[in-house]
Amino acid sequence: MGRRTHAVPAATAAALLLAVLHLHAAVAADPPFSCGAASAAPYCDRKLPIERRAADLVSKLSLEEKISQLGDESPAVARLGVPAYKWWSEALHGVAWSKGMHLDGPLRAATSFPQVILTAASFNPHLWYRIGQVIGTEARGVYNNGQAEGLTFWAPNINVFRDPRWGRGQETPGEDPTMTGKYAAVFVRGVQGYAISGAINSSDLEASACCKHFTAYDLENWKGVTRFAFDAKVTEQDLADTYNPPFKSCVEDGGASGIMCSYNRVNGVPTCADHNLLSKTARGDWSFNGYITSDCDAVAIIHDVQGYAKAPEDAVADVLKAGMDVNCGGYIQTHGVSAYQQGKITGEDIDRALRNLFAIRMRLGLFNGNPKYNRYGNIRADQVCKKEHQDLALQAAQDGIVLLKNDAGALPLSKSKVSSVAVIGPNGNNASLLLGNYFGPPCISVTPFQALQGYVKDATFVQGCNAAVCNVSNIGEAVHAASSADYVVLFMGLDQNQEREEVDRLELGLPGMQESLVNKVADAAKKPVILVLLCGGPVDVTFAKNNPKIGAIVWAGYPGQAGGIAIAQVLFGEHNPGGRLPVTWYPKEFTAVPMTDMRMRADPSTGYPGRTYRFYKGKTVYNFGYGLSYSKYSHRFASEGTKPPSMSGIEGLKATASAAGTVSYDVEEMGAEACDRLRFPAVVRVQNHGPMDGRHPVLLFLRWPNATDGRPASQLIGFQSVHLRADEAAHVEFEVSPCKHFSRAAEDGRKVIDQGSHFVKVGDDEFELSFMA
């Protein structure tokens, strides 16, 4: 608080980026593996199907050995040459500290990408996929260097960011299920070593990704309601079109090899004990091929907190019979034998789980002899923190940053015209803050203030507040610095004490005295100030939006190891911002809505406003998809490429009518052949009118004539990111599938297409299609 730092000799962004803080040393040790050259056991025979190999190994284990393998820390079975394994590793936005990954040996860092919510703001699936690829590669590099005991990573977090107060919303791709599902699929494919699209080789994993938290999990601790005890009351309609689609995409499109069931109950049933969810839906309907883990200590909670199970052995039986395979924690290892002895679980319940678990380890190549001599054995320590990976971390930060306000061309700044700058705020010179949560030691560490010193020799930093909580401040010193400088950049927002796992917010404004600090600094400054917000969840900054003394507002999320550099490049026009908000920013009054109300759709009769841009009926601070640029862009549909099919004449369909009189048709009854015939291309001509080159997300929406029968107001159906030079135009093609994109969820969860008009929209341009059977 009140700390003031003067400029040190400036360093260029390029030099900072190459200043890798860790050293690659000699290989520490061989990685753990099974099936050396002398082994002739069937489970070591690479010519056999993995399912048969896993079954053979399981058949050789005693009951006690079997139960011992059902926890996240699985001990060695020395007599069979099976090493210990740790299932719990983290890689949300880069390889992170965790039980299974040890970044405390010769390798002491890994590339730290922006927190997911900022990366999502790029609306760039190719970027998301490349980040997944880097994580998979660096994970193998750490493993091959003998610094890991597992290759199963419990990421991505693909719960829909339903409520702006949720402490873990920062970990997700945002509030839209289509976007979240796309992120899940391409990220998982990157991590696991698959191509970005097309067929999947499910028998060969570079690393294993896990989709979490299944399902309807988005509350930590709100007014005494904890995630451990919360019973989420969710309709079939909301499950079908909001909560479950990202997981469906993660499995079907991404080929995920792991799923994590969540702490909460859904309609009275703990998700880890829900056979309908784990076995019928995931394994049955979606053909999931992998393992299912509990969240940590979730099995114990079923008995100890929720009281759903009457005895510990009942909790063990509930989860194994539901289809869960491994418990993060030791509860099954402690109570599994007694559950078997009491007849509450069978040998097959145990063996099924073990076959799934050992199959994953075999797909990772850990039962194929020394991994260093197999497919991914050439990934060495020098692949971790390599320059290309760090460049990608910088690009991800650049492309995610969102310009929210830019009055009178306040940005970009001119390096030649800025003689001095005051950097003010608790988030301006804190490197660890840039990393968000679930992070590892980054390859480099550059704060925004340090990066700005490379642009302005006379740069001064004043913290202004003790931290984001801002309950102790020194506004006088900040005001003095602001009045003495040519320009002022404020770095405000949140931190991990305000939003994180186990911590939800109660308010949506800037914490403590931050708003007062911003206003008084703006009043004292010579020119309109620039406000940079570092936060995961949205904040109500209406005061700043409407204050003419605040010339620009920039949202930079938690931008990762290169975030300070990226922010400076955006402020000085070396990068043209193109990010778009992946969540709605609500006003402070939204906190009157109970966080425990899981309904997505508005209820006018009670004043319930609904949630997310798809259903919310209320005022916003900023809308989903909002973002400015230093360039002007235009969009229109290209008639020569957009070819909608005939939407009528499909024979044999049975129409049903809702209570409101809406006629609709069941998508499942239409069948795959009819749905394929309805697919069509929509081609958008997008032009950058200058004055700067830039990357621009093109968002394609569907809207209905009205929002009756629970229809969304609008729905994102496609998005692409395109780089355009100033004055350049390009055509962007989307494949539109009416069965997928025009359908809505009925109250019973069925997907139906309504008879009548549907509008496909990009920017201000749209065209109409009418569906008639």
From TrEMBL:
Keywords in alphabetical order, please: Glycoprotein, Glycosidase, Hydrolase, Secreted, Signal
Question: Which Gene Ontology terms describe the biological processes this protein takes part in?
Answer: arabinan catabolic process; xylan catabolic process
Domain Fibronectin type III-like residues, every copy: 696-766
- Major localization class: secreted
Q: Give the signal sequence positions.
A: 1-29
Spell out the Pfam families in the cross-references: Fn3-like (PF14310), Glyco_hydro_3 (PF00933), Glyco_hydro_3_C (PF01915)
Question: Where does it sit, as one GO cellular component term?
Answer: plant-type cell wall
Q: Which GO terms describe its molecular function?
A: alpha-L-arabinofuranosidase activity; xylan 1,4-beta-xylosidase activity
Instruction: Write down the Gene3D superfamilies for this protein, in alphabetical order.
Output: Glycoside hydrolase family 3 C-terminal domain (3.40.50.1700), Glycoside hydrolase, family 3, N-terminal domain (3.20.20.300), Immunoglobulins (2.60.40.10)
Q: Which SMART domains match?
A: Fn3_like (SM01217)
Its localization reads:
Secreted
Q: Which domain of life is it from?
A: Eukaryota
Q: Which family does it belong to?
A: Belongs to the glycosyl hydrolase 3 family.
Q: What is the protein's given name?
A: Fibronectin type III-like domain-containing protein
- Which organism is the protein's source? Aegilops tauschii subsp. strangulata (Goatgrass)
